[in-house]
Amino acid sequence: xxxxxxxxxxxxxxxxxxxxxxxxxxxxxxxxxxxxxxxxxxxxxxxxxxxxxxxxxxxxxxxxxxxxxxxxxxxxxxxxxxxxxxxxxxxxxxxxxxxxxxxxxxxxxxxxxxxxxxxxxxxxxxxxxxxxxxxxxxxxxxxxxxxxxxxxxxxxxxxxxxxxxxxxxxxxxxxxxxxxxxxxxxxxxxxxxxxxxxxxxxxxxxxxxxxxxxxxxxxxxxxxxxxxxxxxxxxxxxxxxxxxxxxxxxxxxxxxxxxxxxxxxxxxxxxxxxxxxxxxxxxxxxxxxxxxxxxxxxxxxxxxxxxxxxxxxxxxxxxxxxxxxxxxxxxxxxxxxxxxxxxxxxxxxxxxxxxxxxxxxxxxxxxxxxxxxxxxxxxxxxxxxxxx
Length: 388
Known about the structure:
Blueprint: E1 4-13, E2 27-35, E3 40-45, H1 49-56, H2 68-72, H3 80-90, H4 92-95, H5 99-119, E4 134-135, E5 137-141, H6 151-168, E6 172-176, H7 185-199, E7 204-208, H8 216-224, E8 231-235, H9 243-252, E9 256-259, H10 265-274, E10 280-281, H11 285-288, H12 290-303, E11 307-308, H13 316-328, E12 335-337, H14 346-350, E13 352-353, E14 363-364, E15 374-375, H15 377-383
Parallel strand pairs: 5-6, 5-12, 6-7, 7-8, 8-9, 9-10, 10-11
Antiparallel strand pairs: 1-2, 2-3, 4-14, 13-15
């Protein structure tokens, strides 16, 4: 196997984007790992691009604070799990959680892309092979924050996105209800019922509450009144670190409770499963440890009778990663997918290609080597922020 020769960290930001919303697709940081023969793989993470670049290019200080790139130059990329451990131990002091894991995640994903290309196999084959015959994406429906719009304006946009998603071929969606003080809890119940009526009874529906409540009783009051909406899971009900509240809500809710979208590594997910008692864990693959760690998390979830539905609001790189993850992990009933036809984002639409089709709710298994995507080098050259 050709060894790792170069690792580049490329921060990219689309111009003219609003910073007062919750759109994670406005920027990214791409990691490109190239071997001695010029073959390269790409990955990304959902963290501030310039900060990730600084972390990955920091000088080594001592054995527990090493430069992650220096640790990998000259290594055989085939040993992906061993390289993950080498980076994890080498950045133990500054990067054991948070930013350090985010940065490792991007490199790990790029390694799967690179090795898949070297061997001529899809990335999921490096994770043990396909565990299902086809993939089930769900389309996230996000109207944006209110910014002066009325609730009727927001619901009209949700309805438009619902229709587009169903027309494309999705049969599973997640309704984002980040309405906050624009509506009362009682009004929110009526709006979710309205959303279910828009979809009809046969579409799988999840709901993201955007960390609306600080008390599990308040969350339960709403969820108790949604029993006839057939909601698959409730995401971000309580404050992220309120594991005790999640446990009480999980024990008393008629709907599966999800959480842990900001958690990193299997060690944090174990806390969510054992203390938080959630039925669905949602770590971002590109933040929580990459494909190496998400496979461990999925196996951990199986042991606890839970499911894994990763957070995936980023560019087409993360969308591709979600496809390979679900292909290889039976504990993942669906995976998050931002359709560029539903939510307009130039980076999501143009950074990589091709875009897979959704037919009757399913996608075909990827067949191209690695992640199976091509990077738009012209766009990267225009919008990389370290060369403006």
